[in-house]
Amino acid sequence: xxxxxxxxxxxxxxxxxxxxxxxxxxxxxxxxxxxxxxxxxxxxxxxxxxxxxxxxxxxxxxxxxxxxxxxxxxxxxxxxxxxxxxxxxxxxxxxxxxxxxxxxxxxxxxxxxxxxxxxxxxxxxxxxxxxxxxxxxxxxxxxxxxxxxxxxxxxxxxxxxxxxxxxxxxxxxxxxxxxxxxxxxxxxxxxxxxxxxxxxxxxxxxxxxxxxxxxxxxxxxxxxxxxxxxxxxxxxxxxxxxxxxxxxxxxxxxxxxxxxxxxxxxxxxxxxxxxxxxxxxxxxxxxxxxxxxxxxxxxxxxxxxxxxxxxxxxxxxxxxxxxxxxxxxxxxxxxxxxxxxxxxxxxxxxxxxxxxxxxxxxxxxxxxxxxxxxxxxxxxxxxxxxxxxxxxxxxxxxxxxxxxxxxxxxxxxxxxxxxxxxxxxxxxxxxxxxxxxxxxxxxxxxxxxxxxxxxxxxxxxxxxx
Length: 465
Prior knowledge:
Oligomer: single chain
Strand content: 15-25%
């Protein structure tokens, strides 16, 4: 069950970076680094320089310290790392201080029902030790460190994990470095940057959703970001709330239920001027998120179809079509558009013939707006069976799939049927701000993916009758 959003606050979860955001840990990190460097015969690094080296974990800090004082080799890192860790564990909060105003802000957020998390590149054990030493043993609902998962920031997975451990919901992130703002952008989560942290560049270059100079400003800033709703909105229904979907993070709209590819289909239909009355459109395996909306726009011109209409009782006037049997019977030059998403991997016959007949049924100037799942660096494969459910799942990822489409050979498969772009880049068609606002994860922006949406125009067909 999804948590109920606090009535008087727009976020369920607020996650924080640790070093340079929650606490000024530079004095103790500097002491540990210079202790290790001294044992290795190196001079100390000035404290102000160390502040700009923090953010990628203890090993990276030692590597930077060695590089700043002479040659950096992995042998020296291996020698110095346990020295650094042992010293730091003994002195982890000797000089560390909490930034002004933070305690009051944490109290206010907790009082409003907001879950609090720490998402840091500091090793989880070190982060836990530091938090406990600062008197925060029971302060945070979740802690994800740099070694908690196989990946670390700026990969969004640690931030997603921290949010999930808090029960999920709408989230914001607070950090001090480019690593933090990149993490927030990669997660499509608004990130507030603090100006008093350890950034290695001017804070104005962090491209955060907002910048604060004191923690007194945090709650009003989060309220403005969340309640304005100008940073995130579903392209279909306008909702600003997204919930977790499987392992893909917070991509499912809590309003209409759309996932990222459904929103991208809608955006593409709009981009090509199709969301206007008077069109005739064939919609194969219609999406629940917008079937009724499309019917409201196109009326009797909207024709939802599927091989099993009973699964789509939400789609007005849906009828049965078995593309294996019926594609050749489709009338020619009938449709302004044909929509299909994650359909072609299911059809147990020659896929070229299916795509040809769909193209034939388009009016001159008509378009297929479709999502054909393409494995980014994979190769295409097909087996028309018979296949057991186990074999199909093992080979093609799902028990009712008969093929995969691979990005590595897409030009030699689909590209021999239709004229395709040499590379897939959503930023050619949409501004980055639009993709962020509509919660289209960055992994889908460039390069083929299972969520790549194509516009196959009638004139793009390379085959002749």
